[in-house]
Design goal:
The chain has 149 residues and is mainly beta. It has a single domain, classed as Immunoglobulin-like, CATH 2.60.40.10. Helices cover 0% and strands 56% of the residues. The protein is built from no helices and ten strands. The strands form three sheets. A five-stranded mixed β-sheet has the order 4-10-9-6-7, with no helix packed on it. It has a three-stranded antiparallel β-sheet with strand order 1-5-8, with no helix packed on it. Strands 2-3 form a two-stranded antiparallel ribbon. It is elongated and about 75 Å long. The protein starts with a strand and ends in a 20-residue tail after the last strand. The mean pLDDT is 90.
Length: 149
């Protein structure tokens, strides 16, 4: 198995003829309040598989690791892997949809992608708390230094 694509995005789908469509790829979220809630986050993977994996069942999982190291139980799905042509890899598209994802803390998150319980990819996400537009800064600016003798 070879990971060809592993991203977080706003939306994704696979067409009837197998094309993978991904919209709004990101690796950073800015929020004015914590915990933050993202309306729909999708983790998207495209995995090239060889003939030994054609047609078999595989379990995928997505485990989220928060900045403090706390982990979620993995979101899991079972798939029947696609078949390819002899001598060519088949492309397996996987989409995890996470509606109303709650992100409790600012910092670096990791989305660990599992295939048959083994981590095959890690997708980073940084959550940053920012001031709301029009709000006063949380700390006043430092007074200017007087360098005159």
């Amino acid at each position: 198995m070879e990971i060809r694509l592993a991203v977080l995005a706003d939306a994704a789908n696979v067409t009837t003829d197998g094309k993978l469509n991904v919209t709004g790829i990101f690796n950073r979220l800015r929020t004015t309040a914590l915990p933050a809630q993202h309306p729909l986050l999708v983790a998207v993977l495209q995995i090239a598989i060889g003939a030994a994996d054609f047609g078999r069942e595989a379990q995928t999982g997505l485990r989220i690791v928060a900045p403090d190291g706390e982990t979620t139980d993995p979101f899991t799905m079972t798939h029947k892997l696609p078949r390819g042509r002899p001598g060519e890899p088949a492309l397996w598209n996987v989409i995890f949809r996470l509606p109303n994802l709650r992100l409790a803390k600012a910092g670096a998150y990791e989305f660990h992608v599992l295939v048959d319980q083994a981590t095959v990819a890690t997708i980073p996400l940084t959550v940053t708390k920012v001031e709301a537009k029009g709000s006063p800064p949380s700390q006043p600016p430092a007074p200017p230094k007087d360098d005159a003798p």
